[in-house]
Design a protein that fits this description.
371 residues, mainly alpha, Glycosyltransferase, 14 helices, 4% strand
């Protein structure tokens, strides 16, 4: 058995399936920040990865655990008591496509009611900036963050396809196009982490409204959002944006395929090869090649990055593998006054075995197995 397969199997057997859904071992952010258990994107990223692996292996344990997790947070009437729809937090939509998938796999009305409530209570009411794209959260009004593309748009794409809503599918394509138009830097091809429509936030340029730096994981989120949305919708403009982005971002990979926390500043003191963002790009690269959006060169770069993470950034000395070099959190503004500077991104905690790294590793593994 190859090393990556052993790693994934050990994560599944020793860490994931043994985790209490209320206190999952992979949610380091909850542990470090002392957060109470609630519906969140971190756990839902892990469930997304498990369902992808289930689709590949037909391992009933993965489906059963996903059901166990979802039933812990979603009531029979589809309500999710630990979230407030009026927070208009795009992160809370990340689990929507898990609910759609579980409804298709199990037929349980709980899941159908759950994703329909997310749609009617949040998506249809989500505030938008002037171009028509979603606010990131109610507490971050008039702001676009790249992270939100992955949290919301693949769910929208799945919902639109499920109900044959052409306008919804077009909305997904338009939001991805608008985010490219607003946040992409034409000189590097990288995307700025955030945009403030009011141009007044402490981190926002007073002319462009853009945050000052290119943060790796935010670029990884939109790569994955583009790849998943293209797979769902087969929209050629989404495919073109995905191809362009991957061809641009791989220029900043090291020889071993890794990308830095700040991809444009590899020599900056304190900068480091970051695994979660690298794995999101690797996942998107291999998926894009499989879907015919990119060529073998992009697939090879994704494979190289996955292999480097497997060989150099995962310690297998103990029963549970340990994936390192994961940036715990990255954001803009808020109560901590995050200014989006290079110094800020390099000041955030670097942790091990958080789902923001493990889930993309499993997602990328599923793409390796499809080659």
């Amino acid at each position: 058995m190859i090393r990556s397969e052993l790693i994934v199997n050990n994560y599944i057997d020793k860490m994931i399936l043994t985790s209490d859904p209320l206190v999952p071992l992979w949610n380091v952010e909850n542990s470090v920040c002392g957060k109470a258990p609630k519906w969140n994107y971190i756990d839902n990223c892990m469930i997304t990865a498990l369902l992808m692996l289930h689709d590949l292996t037909d391992d009933a344990r993965l489906l059963n655990y996903s059901v166990k997790y979802m039933d812990t947070y979603v009531n029979e009437d589809g309500n999710i008591p630990t979230m407030n729809y009026a927070d208009y937090n795009l992160d809370n939509l990340c689990g929507g496509r898990n609910l759609i998938r579980l409804w298709k796999l199990t037929g349980s009305e709980r899941y159908r009611l759950g994703f329909e409530k997310l749609w009617s209570e949040q998506v249809l009411r989500q505030p938008r900036v002037s171009c028509g794209s979603f606010w990131h959260k109610a507490i971050y009004p008039d702001q676009l963050w790249l992270d939100g593309t992955y949290m919301a748009l693949p769910f929208m794409a799945e919902y639109g396809k499920l109900h044959d809503l052409r306008g919804v599918m077009d909305d997904v394509e338009r939001q991805l196009y608008d985010i490219r138009k607003i946040t992409r830097d034409p000189h590097t091809g990288l995307y700025y982490h955030g945009y403030d429509d009011t141009k007044t936030m402490i981190w926002a340029d007073r002319i462009t409204g853009l945050s000052p730096e290119f943060w790796l994981r935010s670029n990884g989120w939109i790569c994955a959002a583009l790849a998943d949305s293209f797979e769902i919708l087969n929209d050629q403009r989404i495919g073109s944006i995905l191809s362009e982005m991957l061809n641009d971002i791989v220029k900043y990979c090291r020889d071993d395929g890794m990308l830095y926390q700040l991809p444009l500043k590899p020599g900056l003191e304190g900068n480091y090869p970051e695994t979660s963002g690298t794995l999101l790009v690797a996942y998107a690269a291999m998926k894009a090649a499989r879907l015919g959006v990119c060529g073998d060169d992009i697939r090879s770069t994704g494979l190289k990055a996955f292999g480097t993470v497997t060989d150099k950034f995962i310690n297998t000395d103990n029963e549970i593998p340990v994936l390192g070099n994961i940036c715990l959190i990255g954001g803009l503004g808020g109560e901590n006054g995050r200014d989006g500077s290079a110094e800020y991104y390099l000041s955030e905690k670097i942790v091990q075995n958080d789902a923001k790294g493990i889930a993309p590793y499993i997602m990328a593994f599923t793409e390796v197995k499809k080659i």
